[in-house]
Specification:
The complex is a heterodimer. Chain A is α+β, with helices and mostly antiparallel strands. Chain A is about 55% helix and about 20% strand. Chain A contains 10 helices and 6 strands, in the order αααααααααββββββα. By secondary structure, chain B is mostly helical. The longest helix of chain B has 19 residues. The chains are: A alpha+beta, B mainly alpha.
Chain lengths: ~260, ~190
């Protein structure tokens, strides 16, 4: 092995002053006799020093608004099954807090079940939020099988994602996890002939079909196979119904 | 190989994971180079950390464990998107990283260092590095992980970690100082 190569291979620890003394002397000897290696070594040390000098500022990138709240919500969702004796360990105030949260979320769920408008309003808000934050214009279409695998790997959801249909102008652009009522649900995002379209899936919920116009968007609600689907779009009523029909057709095909 | 670990206390575990949010997001920003993907990556990392908390050995390095999940998640996503780092070790990238440097300038690295380097310039220079070098140099010089920890996170041998760190540092410095000119790859020849 050439001496230059041996030297360059040891530059990482050399630049950190962490080479053993004997090896360091060897590297220093070569550097004093080989100007190109000396320059490489100086560049390397300077690169390291710049990063170390700025490390604190680089590391502490300010969090975007809402990320901490969302992550805290994720942490709360992951509460493990109760262990024996856990009630005894809980302070009374914690029990009251849990009861309050439980009651509020149950009432909210019941209200959601009763009210198509409330369901549509919440999911329309998620639709607008996710497209504002996560939609990258001009991004390539996403493969439905890959998206299904991601939803399964990341969240344990085994759902069917309707694929892109170029001839109908339907382009799958991604899938996310949205917080909803007292849990979270899959949110699949599409572009359909220039319109932003969301498909939400509420597993284990059955409700009668509905068509709701709200907040400048239309929500088509239907149930199939024990899951309620909500399609939210800013397209016209006719176009929204047509897109919903496509999704329904693909879903039925899957069953 | 899956070992049985003493499960961490769930509340303490979740609280401690959340203390690493800012550095995880900072690293996610450097990996993804855009805010929406970085937010997504951090949230995915946390979901996995909470779900697989029983695989974490209480009392060991939680930070390194979280960074490993973050990098695995990012790697899987890149692979799924079929635009993974297949050409990371290609000749083109190696050459790009090996050069440029020059013996002709009178400016010493120390003097250049003394000039104030704007964070924005530094971030731009970091973001312009090839992914493999950016990850390695970031984990070592910003996050201060050991070579062995980085090798575990990136799933590459320690020798490769060191060479990527080296090349990343040099390339970064040269990106910040383009007036230093270019020279051919030196390390592989002569001696």
């Amino acid at each position: 092995m050439s001496e230059c190569r041996r030297t360059v291979e040891r530059l990482a620890p050399w630049a950190e002053d962490s080479l053993p003394a004997s090896e360091r002397a060897e590297v220093d000897r070569h550097l004093s006799a080989c100007p190109p290696c000396r320059i490489a070594a100086d560049s390397e040390r300077a690169g390291r020093q710049i990063l170390r000098a700025c490390a604190d500022r680089l590391r502490n990138e300010p969090l975007p608004p809402g990320l901490r709240t969302r992550c805290e919500a994720l942490a709360r969702e992951q509460v493990r099954p109760a262990r024996p004796g856990w009630l005894r360990a809980l302070a009374p105030v914690t029990i009251i807090a849990i009861l309050l949260v439980f009651t509020a979320s149950t009432l909210f769920s019941l209200a959601t079940r009763r009210s198509d408008a409330l369901l549509a309003a919440q999911l329309t808000a998620d639709h607008v939020k996710c497209f504002t934050m996560f939609d990258s214009a001009g991004a390539p279409p996403v493969d439905a099988r890959v998206t299904e695998r991601q939803l399964s790997d990341s969240y344990g959801w085994n759902v069917r994602v309707p694929p892109s249909a170029p001839q109908a102008g339907v382009q799958l652009v991604g899938a996310r996890r949205c917080l909803y009522a007292d849990g979270s649900i899959p949110h699949v995002m599409y572009h359909v002939n220039g319109e932003q379209v969301s498909l939400f899936m509420l597993e284990g919920v059955e409700r009668p079909p509905a068509d709701v116009a709200l907040l400048g968007h239309r929500s088509q609600i239907w149930s199939s196979g024990g899951t309620t689907y909500v399609l939210v779009s800013s397209a016209s009523a006719g176009n929204t119904a047509a897109i919903a029909n496509y999704m329904r057709y693909v879903m039925q095909d899957a069953h | 190989m899956l070992r049985r670990h003493q499960p961490p206390d769930p509340d303490a575990f979740r609280a401690e994971v959340l203390t690493f949010l800012e550095p995880l997001y900072g690293t996610a920003m450097r990996l993804t180079r855009n805010r929406a993907d970085a937010e997504d990556l951090v949230q995915d990392t946390l979901v996995k950390a909470f779900r697989f908390s029983d695989r974490f050995a209480a009392g060991t390095n939680l930070r390194a464990w979280l960074y490993t999940i973050l990098h695995n998640t990012w790697r899987n996503r890149r692979r799924d998107e079929a635009r993974g780092n297949v050409d990371v070790d290609s000749d083109r990238v190696e050459q790009a990283a090996a050069g440029p440097y020059s013996a002709t300038t009178g400016d010493t690295p120390e003097r250049i260092l003394m000039r104030s380097t704007l964070d924005a310039d530094l971030q731009a220079a970091l973001d312009a590095l090839p992914d493999a070098f950016r990850q390695a140099v970031w984990l070592r010089d910003v996050e201060e992980f050991s070579y062995a920890e980085i090798a575990g996170m990136l799933d590459i041998p320690i020798g490769t970690v060191m060479s990527r760190i080296s090349r990343g540092r040099r390339l970064l410095f040269e990106r910040l100082n383009p007036e230093r000119g270019t020279a051919p790859l030196h390390a592989g020849s002569g001696g």
